[in-house]
Amino acid sequence: MEKKTLFDKIWDAHVVKSVPEGPDVFFIDKHFIHEVTSPVAFLNLEKRGIGVRYPHRTVATPDHNVPTVDQDQTIKDKLSRMQVEKLRENCAKYGIELHDLGSAHHGIVHVIGPELGVTQPGMTIVCGDSHTSTHGAFGAIAFGIGTSEVEMVLATQCIMQSKPKKMRISVEGKLGEGVTSKDIILYIISKISAAGATGYFVEYAGSAIQSLSMEARMTICNMSIEMGARGGLIAPDETTFAYLKGKTYAPSGEQWTTAVAHWRTLKTDEGATFDEELQFDARDIEPMITYGTNPGMGIKVNASIPTAEGMEGSNKSSYLKSLEYMGFSPGEAILGKAVDYVFVGSCTNGRIEDIRSVAQMVKGKKKASNITAWIVPGSREVEKQAHEEGLVAILEEAGFELRQPGCSACLAMNDDKIPAGKYAVSTSNRNFEGRQGPGARTMLASPLTVAAVAITGRITDPREIFGN
């Protein structure tokens, strides 16, 4: 009997037709849409006189362009307002479930899918957003698609897709104090580069991965795309089942028992082969931070920025250009650098566990006077929990500003922008030039590191704050 990887099992079960020497016609179980990449897709359907094939398989929410203050009022930005209105119109016209601004389950698409139980093991999931890989934490094949592909899925519930290569990344051992899943993935990307997994779909494995909560696993799968991968996934286990049980769209009763029995089979067979295997030791991972303009430019927070020694040609010039943009020099320490903004949120770290960890760190303390601190829950449900657990009171007492759900300062598509030249330490997923606003300088880190920076006003090792 053929030994299969988890990826193979899910992929092969969803191939409708294989094109010789070409892509597969690939069935999609769930399609998430938002206000940015769906309007043109719907417009093209209308032009062609085509409807939505399976409306119940699509779930919508506005998240990228939405303001994170005064969400009960008319959106001021004309383009954003038009996009959100179009999403409403299209969902109403085609009978698509919409979690709109102000509704109980509004939020970032990759946060509400899991918390509603829409995301389940063994599924194929797409969205017109690169960080769709988040859903892979449940043992699903999930990846981002372009607008023309959004149209294709709406019309046919299928997509043309070539099967990627397979990589397994194992992290073994116990994580040290102050080390989070965000540090794991920033460490991996720093080791293999922002292009190191190009052409692959990655399965994360090993004892350190298995020890993580579902929210922590989502953070890791979310950033698979930042090392060039098509996506990432983690085999479902008891942690997965416990998280899903009782969720709104999760199976119940006998259907739950049947589903879990199937989900238990979703793991890589002993002896199955990958195109590439990498292993890392959890003991080598420490709190991480980026210093450049791609997520692969990361170091341990207490380390020095690498020098350009040994680099040549375009590699050296692009490296130095990146440091010039950031205002850093090769070889200098990053600890103690003054910061202007901190941002906790995004589909990477906008979940309740992230907010809990920040509140625990800053409880009884005050943010530094030079810091503007934004905390943006990933959904209305996260916002509600934060209030109920007393986290909002702790954060506001510390000087954080709690905003309403949305993508916010992760990307410069709404009002939450970092001013030009200012430094932001962010829990988001990208640090490209201008990602958080024209001229903004972004350093990526874990919620714990962001909390430590907020308290001290400078780049700080979070382990220095524990016990203080």
Describe the model.
The chain has three domains: 185 residues, Aconitase, domain 3; 89 residues, Aconitase, Domain 2 (3-Layer(aba) Sandwich), CATH 3.40.1060.10; 176 residues, Aconitase, domain 3 (2-Layer Sandwich), CATH 3.30.499.10. Helix 2 crosses helix 5 and helix 13 runs parallel beside helix 16. The longest helix is centred in the N-terminal third of the chain and has 17 residues. It has a five-stranded parallel sheet with strand order 5-4-3-6-7. A five-stranded parallel sheet has the order 17-16-15-18-19, with helices on one face. A four-stranded parallel sheet has the order 11-10-9-12. Strand 3, helix 2 and strand 4 form a beta-alpha-beta unit. The protein is 32% helix and 16% strand.
Strand adjacency order, main sheet? 5-4-3-6-7
Structural class: alpha/beta
Number of domains: 3
Report the oligomer.
single chain
Helical content band? 25-40%
Largest sheet: 5 strands, parallel
Mean pLDDT: 97
Would you summarize the structure shown here?
The chain is 32% helix and 16% strand.
Give the topology.
Blueprint: H1 6-13, E1 15-18, E2 24-27, E3 30-33, H2 39-48, E4 58-60, H3 78-94, E5 97-98, H4 109-116, E6 124-127, E7 141-144, H5 147-156, E8 158-161, E9 165-172, H6 181-192, E10 200-205, H7 207-210, H8 214-222, E11 231-233, H9 238-244, H10 253-263, E12 276-281, E13 288-290, E14 298-300, H11 313-326, E15 341-344, H12 346-349, H13 352-362, E16 372-375, H14 380-388, H15 391-398, E17 401-402, E18 423-426, E19 441-444, H16 447-456
Parallel strand pairs: 3-4, 3-6, 4-5, 6-7, 9-10, 9-12, 10-11, 15-16, 15-18, 16-17, 18-19
Antiparallel strand pairs: 1-2, 2-8, 13-14
